[in-house]
Design goal:
alpha+beta; two-stranded antiparallel ribbon; 5 helices; about 160 residues; about 10% strand; single chain; about 35% helix; 5 strands; 3-stranded antiparallel β-sheet; elongated
Length: about 160
């Protein structure tokens, strides 16, 4: 599968980025629809239904493609890219997007170490954690799905060893 290398809404000619009028209209429409209350998935579904070309003959959109457009500051213009949307429109769309995203828990140093230094004994894949699986222990499992689960007590429940 060939990937798009140029930012959607732009063409490149002799080392300069130029606005693609057809694609830039789609970009402006994405920002307007999102600010008006549209969801990433609804916007992607509409673009797919309208057979809006993303790259070459690819007309299937997903919410991640829409999100990448909404969060890319190049669309407001900079040294290389001419502006497609106003900075106020970009900031409003991203303010809405960040409010919808909620908060994520941050892994402790212990969890990060386990996540990046432990591999599955069967396939060599990475482990990931299912949060809130149990009140007494955490379930860690292989991302490949090979059923190599392990259970670990949460950090809060680990007690200091007694010194005699």
């Amino acid at each position: 599968m060939e990937l798009r290398t140029l930012l959607y809404g732009y063409n490149k000619h002799q080392f300069r980025f130029l606005i693609n009028e057809t694609e830039s209209a789609v970009v402006r429409g994405i920002f307007d629809e999102y600010i008006s209350g549209g969801t990433l998935q609804k916007i992607a579904d509409r673009l797919t239904a309208e057979n809006t070309v993303y790259y070459k003959d690819k007309t299937v959109w997903n919410k991640h493609m829409v999100r990448r457009i909404l969060e890319n500051p190049h669309y407001t213009g900079d040294d290389e890219y001419p502006a497609i949307v106003d900075k106020a429109v970009f900031e409003r769309a991203n303010e809405i997007r960040l409010k919808k995203s909620g908060t994520r828990e941050i892994d402790s140093e212990r969890e990060k170490y386990f996540k990046y230094h432990t591999v599955c004994g069967q396939c060599g894949g990475r482990f990931t954690r299912r949060r809130n699986w149990s009140s007494t222990r955490e379930k860690w499992f292989c991302t490949c799905g090979c059923k190599s689960d392990t259970y670990i007590m949460p950090t809060e429940q680990i007690m200091e060893p007694h010194k005699y």
